[in-house]
UniProtKB/TrEMBL annotation:
Signal peptide: none annotated. The chain crosses the membrane at residues 20-40. It comes from the Eukaryota. This is Polypeptide N-acetylgalactosaminyltransferase 1 isoform X2. It is a single-pass type II membrane protein. Belongs to the glycosyltransferase 2 family. GalNAc-T subfamily. It comes from Bicyclus anynana. Residues 483-616 form the Ricin B lectin domain. Keywords: Disulfide bond, Golgi apparatus, Lectin, Membrane, Signal-anchor, Transmembrane, Transmembrane helix. The chain holds residues 2 to 622 of 1020 of the full protein.
């Protein structure tokens, strides 16, 4: 080594031997330092890589490890069939904590098998229906923003499993076609008959720009390694767009004949696909919803009652559940037949893909959450389609007590979206919405709706009046089915009847200074059938009679606002020529003490101005 190097330097540089020694030493020293530094860097890099692996940031191996850990956490049999799942002790406490934060017991969800099965709650007659073997193909679209990882995966698994060819319920569909003698195979036209899945073309997950890390690489890795290949796609939106645009993005990517939207916290029931596909195959412009069963946010118990409801709405712009109207029970013919529904909840529905675009997809200027469900409901009915609930298709959904995700800053998306809907579809009835939201009347926040009005024009859609008269005749319309409506002004005090913003069931009706403009809390009506009411609640007097038949202790009885039952009885009132409002069954009259903010009461009728009322708009005034 050293000697040869010295010799080399001596030859090349023609230096004296001693100087050559110094040069060689210096050279070796430099090389040594560089080598040490390089090794050190290498070692640090290795450390960094190892850290990255254990923290699960960007390595497949790390995702795999994390998923194996998740799988080890699952408690076999927990919540199986859809029964309530419970944990005890510390686990129970952690569960409650997660529920407080996320409105879903995520700690528990993480421990229930992702592919648990649910009991079959369908009406027995559904199991006897024979569907066509060939049906249109479905693209199931799941949208999510920061939904719990295990809950999303359970949704996906339930859809995958329900479409497996070897499900017992598919056996009935194989049949020999009359005439041709051809054996029909389960699936959709053009599908490979050897595919283990039927009717399901694809599942599209649309990630509305979630920020939870486990919904990124780990979710993709799970899908790649644990779920069937070529069936599931994930679309990642580059920014948060809200649920309407997320669904539109999914629809754009879809290739199936039928779009089937679900929230990302659902579990599909037995044979839920075919009843929807069969109906849409027969009626192209039918928009269909499954029965939505309730998955309990605390225990993941599936609540699937035999009796089901359809969709209604309030003029405040909210979706409500209503009983199937009697006329509809007659029309549909059978308990398991598709049932007309005036509105839909919005999250779970099937629609022919081409029809979805023709009818106007969504108002793409709606953002965040809320309002799109009533918009689509009114649009479908007014523009010639039908909205139907298909009782043989059942899907569980976790109804959360609050929204765990934040909505885009400073936005009242539900209000703004609903104003957009009202401006386009409700004609003069939009006024009934603005009564609740005077701040949004002509507000620049609502934006321009011209393109949607053009759509309405182009599709030659019918009026909202037509919708009320034909689709939802039982809806109480506070300007239509009434003897008088508006403010009820007390002659003595000048105060108005007022619900005092007490929203709870059976809250007392009160009086308050009259507003100049008609406002929601003072908008009451005396209906033609004889109810003193607002949109949903009726004034009710509870009383008993003495043995002699008199009303027991008839002074100062409060008047409670209770959900209208339509049977009159204790909810029955009449407006006397004197200007008194008399509760028919007890014979008592409505009065006030004249103090603003106090409860209204009923008492024996006497001629006192404290018992006299003037109604803004009535046939009497
Ligand atoms: C109901 C509907 C919901 C939607 C909403 C009105 C059902 C069962 N649910 O409320 O689908 O029609 O009414 O707008 O009919 N999401 C995003 N981006 C967002 C916000 C939400 O992707 O910015 C996702 C969310 O992760 C979920 C879906 O949209 O998968 C619906 O949201 P939700 O479950 O909070 O709405 P929900 O069920 O209270
Ligand atoms: Mn939901």
């Amino acid at each position: 080594g050293m000697r040869r190097t010295v010799k080399f330097i001596k030859q090349k540089m023609k230096l004296p031997v001693r100087k050559c020694y110094h040069a060689a030493k210096a050279g070796f020293f430099v090389i040594l330092v560089v080598t040490i530094l390089t090794l050190f860097e290498h070692w640090r890099g290795g450390k960094r890589a190892a850290r990255a692996m254990t923290s699960g940031l960007d390595s497949e191996a790390a995702y795999e490890k994390a998923i194996l850990e998740d799988e080890a956490r699952i408690i076999p049999g927990l919540g199986e069939g859809g029964v309530a799942a419970h944990l005890t002790g510390e686990a129970q406490r952690l569960g409650e904590e997660s529920e407080k934060q996320l409105a879903i017991n995520v700690y528990l969800s993480d421990r229930i098998a992702y592919n648990r099965t649910l009991q079959d709650h369908r009406h027995p007659a559904c199991k006897r229906v024979v569907y066509d073997a060939e049906l249109p193909s479905a693209s199931v679209i799941l949208i999510f923003h920061n939904e719990p990882y295990s809950v999303v995966l359970r949704t996906v698994w339930s859809v995958v499993n329900s479409a497996r060819r070897d499900n017992p319920w598919f056996r009935r569909a194989n049949y020999v076609e009359r005439g041709t003698g051809r054996t029909m195979t389960l699936g959709y036209p053009g599908q490979d008959p050897n595919s283990p899945f039927v009717y399901l073309k694809e599942i599209i997950l649309v990630d509305d720009n979630s920020t939870l890390p486990e919904l990124k690489g780990k979710l993709s890795h799970y899908v790649k390694t644990r779920l069937p290949p070529d069936l599931i796609r994930i679309i990642r939106l580059p920014d948060r767009r809200g649920l309407m645009l997320a669904r539109v993005a999914g629809a754009r990517a879809a290739r199936g004949a039928v779009l089937l939207f679900l929230d990302a916290h659902c579990e599909a029931g037995a044979d839920w696909l075919r009843p929807l596909l069969a109906r849409v195959a027969r009626k192209r412009d039918a928009v269909l919803t499954p029965l939505i069963d309730v998955l309990d946010q605390t225990s993941f118990r599936l609540d699937a009652p035999q009796h089901f409801q359809v969709g209604g709405f309030t003029f405040m712009g909210h979706f409500t559940w209503i009983d199937v109207p009697e006329r509809e029970k007659k029309r549909r013919g059978s308990d398991i037949a598709p049932t007309w529904s005036p509105t839909m909840a919005g999250g779970l529905f099937a629609i022919n893909r081409a029809y979805y675009w023709e009818i106007g997809a969504y108002d793409e200027q709606m953002a965040g959450w809320g309002g799109e469900n009533l918009e689509m409901s009114f649009r479908v009915w007014q523009c010639g389609g039908t909205l139907e609930t298909v009782p043989c298709s059942r899907v569980g959904h976790v109804f959360r007590s609050f929204h765990p995700y934040g909505l885009p800053a400073h936005s009242d998306t539900h209000g703004i979206n609903t104003a957009r809907m009202a401006d386009v579809w409700m004609d003069e009835y939009a006024e009934l919405f603005y009564l609740h939201r005077p701040d949004l009347r002509e507000s620049p926040k609502v934006g321009d709706v011209t393109h949607r009005r053009v759509l309405r024009e182009k599709l030659q859609c019918k009026s909202f009046q037509w919708y009320l008269d034909n689709v939802y005749p039982e809806k109480f319309v506070p300007v239509r089915d009434v003897f008088g409506y508006g403010r009820f002004v007390n002659n003595a005090s000048g105060l108005c009847l007022d619900t005092l913003q007490r929203d709870a069931e059976a809250s007392p009706l009160g009086v308050y200074g009259c507003h100049k403009r008609l406002e929601a809390t003072q908008y009451l009506a005396l209906s033609l059938r004889g109810e003193l009411r607002d949109e949903e609640k009726c004034a009710e007097v509870q009383y008993t009679r003495t043995k002699a038949g008199d009303v027991d202790g008839d002074e100062s009885r409060r008047v409670l606002m209770v959900t209208c039952h339509g049977k009159l009885h204790e909810q029955n009132w009449r407006y006397l020529p004197s200007g008194q409002l008399q509760h028919v069954e007890s014979g008592l009259c409505l009065r006030t003490t004249g103090v603003s903010g106090s409860d209204a009461t009923v008492a024996r009728c006497r001629s006192s101005p404290l018992q006299l009322w003037t109604i803004d708009y009535s046939e009497r005034n």
